[in-house]
Write a structure and sequence with these properties.
There is one protein chain. The protein starts with a strand and ends with a strand. A hairpin with an 8-residue loop joins strand 9 and strand 10. By secondary structure, it is an all-beta fold. The radius of gyration is 13 Å and the shape is globular.
């Protein structure tokens, strides 16, 4: 079992940056691949980025490639999403997820953190 708690969301102006954190409980964090998703009202959940168990492989959606960076600190049981050059269309609730396979499916989800980008 893994429990995930996101933090770091908030209000930022367009062009600004935020770093989201995903704190995982349990000693098995190092055996799970991690990912970030987001959801806006009326739209389907959108995949953003994934990172392998070792952290050596990453994968990004085209919509965030070059602006967002996923990372993990295994010793701290934490995953991160660094978001730069934020746009108003990045406004959403952001979720982290954990799964046994890089690329999914993901078995565990956090409660989400709100990111709002003002124009």
């Amino acid at each position: 079992q893994v429990q995930l708690v996101e933090s770091g969301g908030g209000l930022v102006q367009a062009g600004g940056s935020l770093r989201l954190s995903c704190a995982a409980s349990g000693r098995t964090f190092s055996t799970y691949a991690m990912a970030w998703f987001r959801r806006t009202p009326g739209r389907e959940r959108e995949f953003l980025a994934a990172i392998s168990v070792s952290g050596g492989s990453t994968y990004y959606a085209d919509s965030v490639k070059g602006r967002f960076t996923i990372a993990r600190a295994i010793a701290k049981n934490t995953a991160f999403l660094q978001m730069n050059s934020l746009k108003p269309e990045d406004t959403a609730v952001y979720y982290c997820a954990a799964g046994t396979q890089f690329g999914g499916p993901y078995d565990y989800w956090g409660q989400g953190t709100q990111v709002t980008v003002s124009s």
